[in-house]
Structure formats: structure tokens, C-alpha cells
Design a protein that fits this description.
Elements: H1 2-10, H2 20-27, H3 41-57, H4 66-83, H5 88-93, H6 99-114, H7 119-141, H8 148-161, H9 169-173, H10 186-200
Helix pairs in contact: 1-2, 1-3, 3-4, 3-6, 4-6, 4-7, 4-10, 6-7, 7-10
Length: 207
């Protein structure tokens, strides 16, 4: 109940409204009662982050193709971060050490072990994979001021339209393709990560 109420306040229209006092009002309880369950507000936020990992894992059942399963996991993390943008940065930089994070790590590392990677390589590769996914998702989930994103795109479009071939010969040569720069890099980077892992995989699942 506390986690659900805190999540409602964080995602309230107009901005994050989470305070201990407001949480007490939302729950109809004395605010100090929250400290019976959580050491402080930071501990509550970590618990919320772990709850959201369970959302990512809901219905996720890895199949025999470790690459497809890893791709599905990455997309699930990205989608969840976009649904909860105000918690994206927290989820990208903090460990929860909770049951859902541990389960996600267990699944991800298990996928790489099934690809034939050694134990240290499976851990290292999963760390690189999940940190890249979290970082890109946090970038995509960043909340901009109203109109800021469109204003940035328009400013770039004007700059690209007036590029001098003498000053920027390479940019001028690809001028028609430069709008791609404003698109999310997540899909492309996800595929590059999985392709690199597939090439490095020593087991029978390698291409």
C-alpha cells in the first residue's frame, strides 16, 4: 500500500509530489508510520524501483533463443522506464538488491551462460548490456519542458539546412540523413549489443 501510494504521488500531474507528509495524507495515517516499514524516503524509493522491475519481468519467459530473450528483456526495461519517467534516473544509477532485481540478474546472466560464456564473462557482459539499456532508456525517458524537444529539433533542422560544405564537408555530404540524429538510439544500439554478444559467444548458440 505504501509503495502504491508513493508511486501515485511521484507520478501525479504537475510534478513529483512525494513527501512523507503527503504520503501520510494519501494513506490516511500518521506520516511517522511509514518509518515502521522503511528506514527513510530513499529506502522507499529503492523499494519502488524494485517493484517496477517486476513490471518488466511480468509475463517474460525466456525461450530457447538466448538472443531473442535478451532482446525482449532489453525492450521490456526500456518500455517500463518510459512508462515511469520520473523514476528512470533512479533506476539507471541505483542498485535495489531486491528480489526483482536479483531475479532479473539471474535470468540475464543465465541467458549468457546458456550461450556458452564463462561465469566471469557472463557477469561482465550482462553488466555491460543492462547498464547500456538502462542508460539509453533513462535518456529517452527524460522529461523536457513543454515544447523543448520540438524547439531543439527545429534548431537542429535550421542548422543542418545552412551547413557550409567548406566548413562541414562530411555533414554536408549526409545532410539528408542528419534528422536521424534526433531519433532514439535505443533500437540500433540494442541490436549492436546483441550482435556483438552473438559473435563473441563460444557455445552452440553462436552464429
Amino acid at each position: 500500500m505504501i509503495i502504491d501510494a508513493a508511486l501515485r504521488l511521484i507520478e501525479a500531474p504537475g510534478g513529483n509530489a512525494l513527501t512523507v507528509r503527503r504520503l501520510g495524507v494519501e494513506l490516511g495515517a500518521d506520516p511517522s508510520a511509514i518509518y515502521r516499514y522503511f528506514r527513510d524516503l530513499d529506502a522507499l524509493l529503492i523499494a519502488i524501483a524494485d517493484r517496477l522491475i517486476s513490471e518488466t519481468l511480468a509475463g517474460f519467459e525466456p525461450g530457447p533463443d538466448w538472443k531473442a530473450a535478451l532482446r525482449e528483456m532489453g525492450r521490456g526495461v526500456h518500455d517500463s522506464m518510459l512508462r515511469h519517467p520520473r523514476l528512470a534516473q533512479l533506476r539507471a544509477i541505483r542498485f535495489t538488491a531486491g528480489p526483482n532485481e536479483l531475479r532479473a540478474d539471474d535470468i540475464g546472466i543465465g541467458l549468457l551462460l546458456s550461450a556458452g560464456f564463462s561465469a566471469p564473462d557472463a557477469v561482465r557482459h550482462f553488466r555491460d548490456f543492462i547498464d547500456a539499456v538502462l542508460s539509453l532508456a533513462a535518456m529517452d525517458a527524460a522529461e523536457l519542458a513543454p515544447g523543448q524537444e520540438e524547439a531543439d529539433k527545429e534548431a537542429l533542422a535550421r542548422a543542418y539546412a545552412t551547413l557550409s560544405p567548406e566548413d562541414y564537408p562530411n555533414l554536408a555530404a549526409v545532410r539528408d540523413h542528419l534528422p536521424q540524429i534526433t531519433a532514439s538510439p535505443f533500437p540500433g544500439v540494442l541490436e549492436k549489443l546483441i550482435s556483438a554478444l552473438a559473435l563473441a559467444a563460444p557455445g552452440p548458440s553462436a552464429p
